[in-house]
Amino acid sequence: MSTLARLLPLLVLLRAAPPSLAFSTTPPQSPHSQQRVFISTPSRPTNRIVSDLMTSEPHLFTLAPHTPVEQAISALLQAGVSGAPVVERLKNAERPEKVDCRLVGFVSSFDFLPREESGSLVALGDLEDSETARRILGQTVQDIMTRDPVTVETNDLMKVAAETMAKHRLHALPVVEGNYGNLVGIVTAKDVMRDVMRTASHALPAEESYSQTNVPGDLAA
Predict the structure, then answer these.
(1) What SS3 state is found at 211?
(2) Arithmetic mean of pLDDT over the chain
(3) Positive or negative, the Cα torsion across 105, 88, 180, 193?
């Protein structure tokens, strides 16, 4: 008997079988033994970019350079953040109705710690000197901010953002437009953790199973 003739009854049997028996995630009720076949589906690429996860307007929190330190601290505490980009808002030369946020610095909670003129930290218990306290509170954000902060661009991969944070020991990065350098968002360590969790979940193989009914030996031979 030819191979085709021997396989024909099997093909007819499979074609006539109900879908629940041909492809099912649970073994069908059949007197025959079941063979579960698992197919590992390759994980899909998860190359997300910074703009996919960054916080942008209208939820982007920023500070102005001339904001007094005392007011800046209150604003940060109220917003529940430990740092913020410092921007100058300028009218767009080409589109007057649009306001550009020019990034001029970044301020973090550590920048508010009182320092001597030499740069060394002032012990908090030594602030009894009214002159020192007056000098600290008389400062503005631009006096204590980090100028030319480390940034990433909207089209950078989240991997690049994570590596940049690790390299510079930062918990947040301002996001700028590649062509203009204007601030468009901020990406934080929390965003990096979200991306890690998503990447890890997609790295697990997706399993699809189906059941194939064993046929009598004379048909399967």
Answers:
(1) strand
(2) 75
(3) positive
